Amino acid sequence: MEAFTEAWNVICDYCKTKITDVAYRTWISRIKPVNLDFTKNEAVLLVPNDFHRQTLTLCYMPLLKESFEAVFGKQFNIVLNIPEDIDEDKSDDKDDTPVDKDYEYTFDTFIVGSSNKFAHAASIAVAAKPAGTYNPLFLYGNSGLGKTHLLYAIGNEIKKSHPEMSICYIKGDDFTNELIDCLGKGQMSEFRQKYRNSDILLVDDVQFIGGKVSTQEEFFHTFNALYDAHKQIVLTSDRPPKEIKTLEDRLRSRFESGLIADIQPPELETRIAIIKRKAEYMNFEIPNDVCEFIASKLKTNIRQLEGTVKKLKARYLLNNESPTISSVQDIISDILNNEAPPELTVEKIIEEVARTFGVTSEEIRSQKSRSAKISNARQIAIYIVRSLTPLSMEAIGEEFGNRHYSTIIYTNQKVEKLIKTNSKTKEIVEDIIKNIRDR
Length: 439
Hints:
Layout: H1 2-16, H2 21-28, E1 32-37, E2 42-46, H3 50-72, E3 77-81, H4 117-128, E4 137-140, H5 147-161, E5 167-171, H6 172-185, H7 188-196, E6 200-204, H8 213-228, E7 232-237, H9 249-255, E8 259-262, H10 268-281, H11 288-297, H12 302-319, H13 325-337, H14 346-357, H15 361-365, H16 372-388, H17 393-399, H18 405-421, H19 423-438
């Protein structure tokens, strides 16, 4: 069972790369591994209830099967049970926490190289003296290079040395979602108290608050309240503040007022060290030639290196397959084949436009919602769908409340003109497209 639990963690990692955070948390994270039978090629999973099982069967079964094949190299029949079908106590996995738990994210497990040593040094300085010289600290770099690791490491180090301090971690888009939820429930006082009373505020992927007026307004006041009270703020992003085009100038200037540190892709020696450290952490030995082979193929993303180690460990535990260059080739091949950008669906585009403008996807699609803000969001969404997907004008019209194709043509032309004449519109569109591709 322990082997299946480790393998399940790898499967979860794979699923995270294929669907949105909301979909993962709602449907995949609540699954528990029960039994894996290599003789029958059957995997038994436990889900909370029958509705959950039906949704997984209808919407996510292809993803689950794909993830099992990616990890084990062969297909499995997946059986979904609910508590009424199986004694839940048989499952040893009692932990619903994320796959990569906080205790992994320490300065001791962070491999330092020339590509990240400045960001690492700045993070250690902040952890040693919160709200000292570097406030705010702004870390930026491409996905998978260790920004989140450093963010958690700062929090974990402060938690050890200053257990009395209140530490608040949030993702940029979750800050927006929580704000919208609290506005709807009339709980803004509790929302503000939560963030403005914290001693340490850690915000991951802060670029996702860009373009959202209400979110930026609230974050601006939260930032000021904490800064004036000499509380530490640490932010991460996939780009420096000046390149977040939909970020308000007053927020950009505050982000730039502290220390900005970038993280670049690791060089070969650092990549090898990362692989060895991850294997050591998992009590798993990988031969030097295999480490070098992996590092020579996966050059730009630390998560890919660590994910490969996890898959090798899972295969070793489940079928005693020792890591060799031959055995690792198919794992790396799968990763490299997945380097292409994910499919840009209409749903993903509308969701991101809705987040940016502070409206709902339903309002954007609706024929009835005609407010200026919703109309503007709808026009931008139509333009981006037309730009990024192969859908015809007729098909796009069907996606937006069965609008006539002539309306789609007119809207597309209108936004094209706005982009040429209005720099703000151009920046918003570019930022939305970048966010969609980065998710």
